[in-house]
Write a structure and sequence with these properties.
- With about 100 residues, this protein is an alpha+beta fold.
- It folds into two domains: about 45 residues; about 40 residues.
- Helix content is about 50%, strand content about 20%.
- It is built from two helices and three strands.
- A three-stranded antiparallel beta sheet has the order 2-1-3, covered by helices on one side.
Protein backbone atom coordinates (compact mmCIF):
# COMPACT_ATOMS: atom_id res chain seq x y z
CA UNK A 1 0.00 0.00 0.00
CA UNK A 2 1.19 3.45 -0.92
CA UNK A 3 0.12 6.82 0.39
CA UNK A 4 -1.44 9.19 -2.16
CA UNK A 5 -2.36 12.85 -1.82
CA UNK A 6 -5.03 14.65 -3.80
CA UNK A 7 -7.03 17.87 -3.68
CA UNK A 8 -10.78 17.48 -3.37
CA UNK A 9 -13.61 19.97 -3.23
CA UNK A 10 -15.70 19.72 -0.06
CA UNK A 11 -18.65 22.12 0.26
CA UNK A 12 -16.97 24.54 -2.14
CA UNK A 13 -13.56 24.53 -0.42
CA UNK A 14 -10.38 22.86 -1.65
CA UNK A 15 -8.99 20.34 0.81
CA UNK A 16 -5.82 18.26 0.49
CA UNK A 17 -6.37 14.73 1.66
CA UNK A 18 -4.35 11.54 1.82
CA UNK A 19 -5.49 8.02 1.09
CA UNK A 20 -3.78 4.62 1.20
CA UNK A 21 -4.18 2.57 -1.97
CA UNK A 22 -2.37 0.11 -4.23
CA UNK A 23 -2.27 2.42 -7.27
CA UNK A 24 -3.21 5.97 -8.30
CA UNK A 25 -6.32 4.65 -10.06
CA UNK A 26 -7.40 2.84 -6.91
CA UNK A 27 -6.76 6.00 -4.88
CA UNK A 28 -8.91 8.03 -7.31
CA UNK A 29 -11.72 5.49 -7.02
CA UNK A 30 -11.59 5.59 -3.23
CA UNK A 31 -11.71 9.41 -3.24
CA UNK A 32 -14.59 9.43 -5.73
CA UNK A 33 -16.49 7.02 -3.51
CA UNK A 34 -15.87 9.12 -0.38
CA UNK A 35 -16.32 12.63 -1.79
CA UNK A 36 -18.34 12.19 -4.98
CA UNK A 37 -17.60 11.82 -8.68
CA UNK A 38 -16.92 15.49 -9.51
CA UNK A 39 -15.13 16.46 -6.30
CA UNK A 40 -11.55 15.48 -7.25
CA UNK A 41 -9.59 18.59 -8.30
CA UNK A 42 -6.09 17.08 -8.70
CA UNK A 43 -5.12 13.55 -9.61
CA UNK A 44 -3.70 11.53 -6.67
CA UNK A 45 0.10 11.63 -6.45
CA UNK A 46 2.30 9.26 -4.46
CA UNK A 47 3.82 10.60 -1.25
CA UNK A 48 7.20 9.28 -0.20
CA UNK A 49 7.95 9.25 3.49
CA UNK A 50 11.16 11.01 4.44
CA UNK A 51 12.91 9.76 7.55
CA UNK A 52 13.85 12.42 10.06
CA UNK A 53 17.55 12.80 10.73
CA UNK A 54 18.66 13.23 14.31
CA UNK A 55 21.11 16.09 14.78
CA UNK A 56 24.63 15.03 15.67
CA UNK A 57 26.10 15.70 19.07
CA UNK A 58 29.10 18.01 19.35
CA UNK A 59 31.48 15.03 19.64
CA UNK A 60 29.95 13.32 16.61
CA UNK A 61 30.20 16.54 14.58
CA UNK A 62 33.86 16.94 15.51
CA UNK A 63 34.64 13.33 14.51
CA UNK A 64 32.75 13.74 11.24
CA UNK A 65 34.65 16.93 10.38
CA UNK A 66 37.96 15.21 11.19
CA UNK A 67 37.06 12.33 8.87
CA UNK A 68 36.17 14.78 6.10
CA UNK A 69 39.49 16.58 6.61
CA UNK A 70 41.38 13.28 6.33
CA UNK A 71 39.60 12.48 3.04
CA UNK A 72 40.46 15.94 1.67
CA UNK A 73 44.10 15.52 2.67
CA UNK A 74 44.27 12.08 1.05
CA UNK A 75 42.85 13.52 -2.18
CA UNK A 76 45.41 16.36 -2.06
CA UNK A 77 48.25 13.85 -1.61
CA UNK A 78 47.03 11.82 -4.61
CA UNK A 79 46.79 14.96 -6.73
CA UNK A 80 50.30 16.05 -5.77
CA UNK A 81 51.71 12.59 -6.54
CA UNK A 82 50.04 12.71 -9.94
CA UNK A 83 51.54 16.16 -10.62
CA UNK A 84 55.01 14.87 -9.68
CA UNK A 85 54.64 11.88 -12.02
CA UNK A 86 53.60 14.20 -14.86
CA UNK A 87 56.59 16.49 -14.23
CA UNK A 88 58.95 13.50 -14.20
CA UNK A 89 57.48 12.17 -17.43
CA UNK A 90 57.72 15.59 -19.07
CA UNK A 91 61.36 15.86 -17.97
CA UNK A 92 62.08 12.41 -19.46
CA UNK A 93 60.45 13.49 -22.74
CA UNK A 94 62.51 16.67 -22.80
CA UNK A 95 65.73 14.61 -22.51
CA UNK A 96 64.88 12.60 -25.59
Amino acid sequence: MNKYQASVRVKGQLVKTAVFADSPVHARLILQYQFGMDSIVSYPTAITEVATIKPLTADQQRIKSMQAKVKQDQAAVKAEQARLKIRAAQADLAKI
